[in-house]
From TrEMBL, chains A, B:
The lineage of its organism: Eukaryota, Metazoa, Chordata, Craniata, Vertebrata. L-histidine binds at residues 71-73, 98, 114, 118, 267, 271-272. One of its GO terms (molecular function) is histidine-tRNA ligase activity. It catalyses: tRNA(His) + L-histidine + ATP = L-histidyl-tRNA(His) + AMP + diphosphate + H(+). This is histidine--tRNA ligase. One of its GO terms (biological process) is histidyl-tRNA aminoacylation. InterPro entries: aa-tRNA-synth_II, aa-tRNA-synth_II/BPL/LPL, Anticodon-bd, Anticodon-bd_dom_sf, His-tRNA-ligase, HisRS-like_core, HisRS/HisZ, HisRS_anticodon. One of its GO terms (cellular component) is mitochondrion.
Length: 430, 430
């Protein structure tokens, strides 16, 4: 349940998609690492907030207690701490596992790929953070998924908002995960969850509402830097200062057109400590009613300066910022688009079919195909002793093989091969 | 335990290795599929003989009972049956899981890659089987692993041998798994296991010994076809006839020099029904004493005509033959060789570092690197506002970046960039 096989056509499409993502990661100097699909259970404990109940555990068959990885970020942090690495730019493309309610039509599975790029190290503020946003911008542009917006916020700003609105420290994380729902449900519902389930005062909730419904650009940052309350809060001031710097860098990258500073963005995971962001696709012009409506998140990430320290015996911190591309949703979109276009993706790369037009020529086929393989040419033949020529040519048409190398009695006698262009039917002897 | 992280250098080496294997699979017209890392437990039951106890099971957290895949062959057979596919040439490169005693120095892990190529369908005898052997030959030759031999046998011949030696049907599979140990322990030990643990008569064991210690080529096949007992056994006769045909095809492929018909080859898995084979590396000339000694299996496979039928509700069979490349052992060898050579593998593909020689030029760096990224050029910069030029050039040397694009005050004023070849220190303004 919630998993799927990939047919050759799906595997080919996925390969194309992952190649585009990986080539962007390489363009930014990322090095690949790999980690096991299973981690010690204790490694995953206390990192995912409400997600923890979705972790797949392995049966205790003696030995270590294991679980399947839930994301690629925690294994990365564990890897850095274990190897005492303080400085690294890495990417990792692999499957992760969540016992979630699958919604396969929207690309939500229990086994799914993540494509992560992270920058670890003590650097000058906002330079790696800006690069992560540039990466998201490049990938979504390259893939031509239509219009998108990248929402940006900062956990410090959110915490500052909660503080100045009178929320006690202990309720920051629950308040955060409630605010995070604002992209799916209206403010009224979020407000009533805050007051009901999370036990905030109605006054605090209303004050929060005034802030978290704001979104904009540099002018909003400037305005909040002047805000009578927020400007008095140390965390919020830091976050806003960095947000301003981030926008400066994004201006130099020429991508602020797709960036929205959005105070409702909270992100569900516990480990974020600074900048957070999320990219959403907007509905196409044709389907648009009044305002652009988001059709779902396709990338997200943020800064997590405390996570590596949780795995270091001495608690030594390694600041990190990273991005995860939501490849499954993108895959669903591309799959639907491919289906709509009627285009048929080739599932093999075979260049030539070795064929014979008469009987008793299997030996000739085997000798020729062997020569082709040894020369690095992608070649196939039918696994029949005496296949009909028509059947062999149909196979080419069905699978998109462009050439047939035909060797018959005459060709054998003349020491040549007849090369046929399957589409045009042109033939040359060589 | 028994798993490992891959560092960037290891990930780069593995990527190189897997690319070589996959390009061979594509050369032979393989299409990729992918299946989930977990299967229903019931799918894996009864397929692996003594290996069954090594299956990793997931905890029962409600819902289906799951286990991690043990190989890629059973998931492939399940895929074919589920989708009613009767004809397919597919490859699959993915990790599999076995709760084995790890021997990591010899490349035996609990999580490891398999690279499988399989041909499913009703075809003329031995044509796909011969191609599988050709694939093993190509891959081992391409990777330049030194001398190797591919042992070939047939389950039907082995069963015929057991039958004519007086072993009851019910003991074929245990006898088979005992014979399989002949590559690691001498005949005397295998004999005593047969008589002791497996309960064969000493006479039967001795007669088996006369057969399973034979190995050779076409002449041995011919001799056994004339063997007074074996030639009377239907299964053995079929197997020997097919073996002869196989050698004919392998002669046309020009690879019989590396093929040995070896009656001791049995292979541990239950599901084989016909041809079986295993490639072993031989010790290098330099280390060789008298006879070539095998240093371990690096590929194996065979025909399994009954497996797909086990997953079909009506038991419809799809004949299959396939090969699995033992990538971990090959990886260990390449890793040791790389270490010995002192060669340093680059872990990134960055072409140019964007650098500045004076302070207050971060904006210039960000603008230039953004242009390079947008033009598809792999570029990096240091994440510092004002890094020293020397530090930037050292970074190039450390990570193998060949070029530095330097933009200083003069270059900015002149509207140019200074491109420096890191190795030769040559510079051009452009």
């Amino acid at each position: 349940q919630g998993t799927r096989d990939h047919t050759p056509a799906q595997a080919a499409l996925r390969d194309r998609l992952l190649s585009a993502v990986v080539s962007c990661f390489k363009r930014h100097g990322g090095a690949a690492i790999d980690t096991p699909v299973m981690e010690l259970r204790e490694t995953l404990v206390g990192k995912y907030g409400e997600g923890a109940k979705l972790i797949y555990e392995l049966q205790d068959q003696g030995g270590e207690l294991l679980a399947l990885r839930y994301d690629l970020t925690v294994p990365f942090a564990r890897y850095l701490a274990m190897n005492k690495i303080t400085n690294m730019k890495r990417y990792h493309v692999a499957k992760v596992y969540r016992r979630d309610n699958p919604a396969t039509t929207r690309g939500r599975y229990r086994e799914f790929y993540q494509c992560d790029f992270d920058i670890a190290g003590q650097f000058d503020p906002m330079i790696p953070d800006a690069e992560c946003l540039k990466i998201v911008h490049e990938i979504l542009s390259d893939l031509q998924l239509g219009d998108f917006v990248i929402k940006v916020n900062d956990r410090r700003i959110l915490n500052g908002v909660f503080a100045v609105c009178g929320v006690p420290d202990s309720k920051f994380i629950p308040a955060c995960s409630t605010v995070d729902k604002l992209d799916k449900v209206p403010w009224e519902e979020v407000r009533s969850e805050m007051v009901g389930e999370k036990g905030l005062s109605p006054e605090a909730a209303d004050r929060i509402g005034d802030y978290v419904q704001l979104h904009g650009g540099l002018e909003l940052i400037e305005r909040l830097l002047q805000d009578a309350q927020l400007s008095q809060n140390k965390l919020a001031k830091e976050g806003l200062g960095d947000m301003k710097l981030l926008f400066e860098y994004l201006t130099l990258f020429g991508i602020t057109g797709k960036i929205s500073f959005d105070l409702s963005l909270a992100r569900g995971l516990d480990y974020y400590t600074g900048v957070i962001f999320e990219a959403v696709l907007l509905q196409q012009e044709s389907e648009r009613l009044e305002e652009p409506v988001s059709v779902g998140s396709v990338a997200g990430g943020g800064r997590y300066d405390g996570l590596v320290g949780m795995f270091d015996p001495k608690g030594r911190k390694v600041p990190c910022v990273g991005v995860s591309i939501g490849i499954e949703r993108i895959f669903s979109i591309l799959e639907q688009r491919l289906e709509a276009s009627g285009e048929k993706l080739r599932t093999t790369e075979t260049q030539v079919l070795v064929a014979t037009p008469q009987k008793h020529l299997l030996a000739a086929r085997l000798k020729l195909i062997s020569e082709l393989w040894d020369a690095g040419i992608k070649a196939e033949m039918l696994y029949k002793k005496d296949p009909k020529l028509l059947k062999q040519l149909h196979y080419c048409e069905d699978t998109g093989i462009p050439l047939a190398a035909i060797v018959g009695e005459q060709e054998l006698a003349d020491g040549v091969v007849k090369l046929r262009d399957v589409a045009t039917r042109e033939e040359v002897r060589m």
